Amino acid sequence: ARIVVLISGSGSNLQAMIDCQQSGELGGDIVAVISNRPGAKGLERATKAGIEAQCLDHKAFADRESFDQALQAQIDQFQPDLVVLAGFMRILTPTFTEHYLGRMINIHPSLLPKHQGLNTHQRAIDAGDAQHGATVHFVTAELDGGPGIVQVAVDIEAKDTSETLAQRVQYQEHYMFPLAVQWFCQGRLRLHKDGNNHVSLFD
Ligand code: GRF
Fold first, then answer.
1. How far is residue 150 from each of residues 46, 111, 135, measured CA to CA in Å?
2. What is the mean pLDDT of residues 19-41?
3. What is the 107 CA–ligand 1 centroid distance (Å)?
4. What family does this belong to (predicted)?
5. What residues line ligand 1, using a CB cutoff of 6 Å?
6. Are 118 and 128 a contacting pair, CB within 8 Å?
């Protein structure tokens, strides 16, 4: 499978996928990495791994629609089977999410449906949650609302700050996210595009 990864920042999840690709465990090829932020460290990670790294700065566009249109054109040049949002910090238009429905996945740092949106680690602590985690899900028009594929939970400790908690959650993300990509590449994951989108995971 051909994979395009979208990032905005550090790209530690991207790195986890690159590592799996290099050890032959990803089941697909990352053919391009695209960032909406020019300085994103993940772009260096891609280049270092010999992967095409491109930037599409959202600030150069007047509105969300025109950015998403240009992004879609840039992605589709690579004819991907799967688009992976790995710390891509942009809200996407329904036209864009519809175009990639069933072939675009995201990782969100919470136990969805809890804590959609930003600052999830601090919000989980403030809410007094016993556990926190991350979820990989198919992307639909609803922000952080698409059907879940796999989820990992960690216990919140009394001494946790949002930084220590984020670190433990991300450690788990780096195992879980490449695994979900592998399942997709193996044809074991399917989004059913009926009224209530749901996911099947085949053996
Ligand atoms: C991750 O914590 C992910 O859950 C969230 O953004 C972060 C991206 O980190 N969506 P990185 O760029 O992969 O290091």
1. 25, 10, 6
2. 97
3. 7
4. Belongs to the GART family.
5. 7, 9-14, 42, 86-87, 107-109, 134, 170, 173
6. no
User: What CA–CA distance (Å, rounded) separates 105 from 137?
Assistant: 6
Structure token digits, residue 161: 């700050």
- Provide the angle, in degrees to the nearest 10, between the axes of the packed helices 12-22 and 162-185: 40
Question: How far is 50 from 62, CA to CA, in rounded Å?
Answer: 32
**Binding annotation for (6R)-10-formyltetrahydrofolate:** 64, 89-92, 106
The residue assigned the tokens 């499978």 is 1
Residue 137 appears among annotated catalytic residues: no
CATH of the domain at 140: 3.40.50.170
Report how far ligand 1's centroid is from the alpha carbon of 42 (Å).
11
Question: The complex's ipTM?
Answer: 0.95
The yes-or-no verdict on residue 162 having pLDDT over 60 is yes
Tell me the pLDDT band of 195, cut-offs 50, 70 and 90. low
Residue span of the structural domain in which 61 resides: 2-201
Residue 36 has pLDDT above 90, yes or no: yes
Q: Is the pLDDT of residue 150 over 60?
A: yes
pLDDT at position 203 over 70: no
Count how many domains the chain has. 1
